[in-house]
UniProtKB/TrEMBL annotation:
<keyword id="KW-0647">Proteasome</keyword>
<feature type="domain" description="PCI">
    <location>
        <begin position="176"/>
        <end position="343"/>
    </location>
</feature>
<comment type="similarity">
    <text>Belongs to the proteasome subunit S11 family.</text>
</comment>
<dbReference type="InterPro" id="IPR000717">
    <property type="entry name" value="PCI_dom"/>
</dbReference>
<dbReference type="GO" id="GO:0005198">
    <property type="term" value="F:structural molecule activity"/>
</dbReference>
<dbReference type="GO" id="GO:0005829">
    <property type="term" value="C:cytosol"/>
</dbReference>
<dbReference type="GO" id="GO:0005634">
    <property type="term" value="C:nucleus"/>
</dbReference>
<dbReference type="Pfam" id="PF01399">
    <property type="entry name" value="PCI"/>
</dbReference>
<protein>
    <recommendedName>
        <fullName>PCI domain-containing protein</fullName>
    </recommendedName>
</protein>
<dbReference type="InterPro" id="IPR054179">
    <property type="entry name" value="PSD13_N"/>
</dbReference>
<dbReference type="InterPro" id="IPR035298">
    <property type="entry name" value="PSMD13"/>
</dbReference>
<dbReference type="GO" id="GO:0006511">
    <property type="term" value="P:ubiquitin-dependent protein catabolic process"/>
</dbReference>
<dbReference type="GO" id="GO:0008541">
    <property type="term" value="C:proteasome regulatory particle, lid subcomplex"/>
</dbReference>
<dbReference type="InterPro" id="IPR040798">
    <property type="entry name" value="Rpn9_C"/>
</dbReference>
<dbReference type="Pfam" id="PF18261">
    <property type="entry name" value="Rpn9_C"/>
</dbReference>
<dbReference type="Pfam" id="PF22037">
    <property type="entry name" value="PSD13_N"/>
</dbReference>
<dbReference type="InterPro" id="IPR036390">
    <property type="entry name" value="WH_DNA-bd_sf"/>
</dbReference>
Length: 382
């Protein structure tokens, strides 16, 4: 397309190439452009870009028509349209060059939100090209900018958390991926994801929850609808495994762990995964006890975790070091006195258990009240 063509000439050229169902859009573009109705023109172009058949015409329309009046367009809209254009490039280096120029267009004090959006999407392309340093630099820069905002559109946070998650996934940083992936899902409508995207995200979250060395509470993930995407797939056992971990169910873990053979990443970390299920069993055993009944013998922990006696004390020390519990160990009596257990997001079964314990506590309070009432008269007998 001739670079010297006027915007109207560009539209005329594209009109000749477009299928009939798109030609009316180009007529509308010309009319709104002539009348300088920039907002309405922006909305109409957004509508045009949302049509799959518009793909081959998005790049020339952006570069030779929108570029003429982009200064009058809302900059966040400009970035959003630019991100649609990027999808038309087969070469990531071309996509990077395009986005880099787009970043410069929105790099002003008044358009920091659009700037963050453009920088993060540019960072994603850099990640695809293997530029981890450039990606991390962009993440750090945008995080500082976002921290200064009182409020910002959800799509910008979604972009930030999505790219962060992809970066930490590439670096095999499981806890960081887990955190950012869940934050990303909190920023979007799950219905916007395809079934395959839902399954892939659920799979990645399950793996990161299992292998994250600081993740010992799966409640938030277990209650999230994204996990249902694994139901009915070959990876449904991962969903069941997460529930087994959350409940500290060693028997179910042993049953499901036979699937590790088909997943080298889990098989290579079998020692860690066994230790993790033992820690989860310990946490669940403490959690199931009332606060006045948390002096637990080593022998009880042996029966709960199925560990040999000589490994119990190390497990307790590991739980203390990870701050999963607080308390002290009496080596002479071979007991651990737990004063605190890490707060948890509870699943429905655990909530029911909590309800039963509250009912027991209520009954104990009533019994104590009756005893006090019966004994009180004697206090006044001379």
């Amino acid at each position: 397309m001739d670079l010297d063509q006027s915007p109207i000439e560009v539209l005329n050229e594209l009109r000749k190439q477009c299928p009939p169902e798109l030609q009316e859009y180009l007529n509308t573009f010309e009319d709104l452009y002539d009348r300088k109705l920039w907002h309405q023109l922006t909305l109409k172009i957004e509508e045009f870009y949302s049509i799959p058949a518009s793909g081959p015409f998005q790049v020339p329309l952006f570069q030779h028509f929108i570029s003429d009046w982009e200064a009058r367009m809302n900059k966040l809209k400009l970035v959003t349209l630019g991100l649609s254009v990027v999808k038309q490039f087969d070469d990531n280096n071309q996509a990077l060059a395009f986005l880099t120029s787009l970043v410069e267009k929105v790099n002003t004090p008044d358009t920091r939100d659009a700037y963050v959006h453009a920088v993060m999407e540019t960072a994603y392309i850099k990640l695809m090209l293997g530029d981890f340093e450039g990606t991390k630099s962009a993440i750090d820069e945008c995080e500082k900018i976002l921290d200064k905002f009182d409020s910002v559109e959800t799509l910008i946070h979604a972009s930030f958390y999505r790219v962060c998650a992809e970066y930490f996934k590439a670096k095999a940083s499981f806890p960081e991926f887990y955190k950012n992936a869940l934050l990303y899902l909190a920023c979007i409508n799950l219905d916007a994801l395809t079934p395959d995207e839902k399954t892939n995200r659920a799979y990645d979250l399950a793996i990161s929850a299992l292998l994250g060395d600081t993740i010992y509470n799966f409640g938030e993930l277990l209650m999230h609808p994204i996990l249902d995407a694994l139901t009915g797939t070959p990876h449904e056992w991962l969903r069941n495994l997460l529930f087994a971990y959350n409940a500290g169910d060693l028997a179910k873990f042993e049953t499901l762990s036979v699937n590790f053979a088909q997943m080298p990443l889990l098989q290579d970390n079998i020692v860690f995964l066994r230790q993790k299920i033992c820690l989860m069993s310990l946490i669940e055993a403490v959690f199931q006890r009332s606060s006045d009944n948390r002096t637990i013998s080593f022998s009880t922990i042996c029966s709960v975790t199925l560990l040999p006696p000589e490994e119990v004390e190390y497990l307790i020390m590991k739980a203390l070091a990870l701050k999963l519990i607080r308390g002290s160990i009496d080596q002479v009596r071979e007991v651990v006195m737990v004063t605190w257990v890490q707060p948890r997001v509870l699943d429905l079964v655990q909530i029911d258990g909590m309800r039963q314990r509250l009912q027991e506590w209520d009954e104990n309070v009533k019994k104590t009240a009756i005893i006090v009432e019966n004994e009180t008269p004697e206090l006044f007998v001379q």
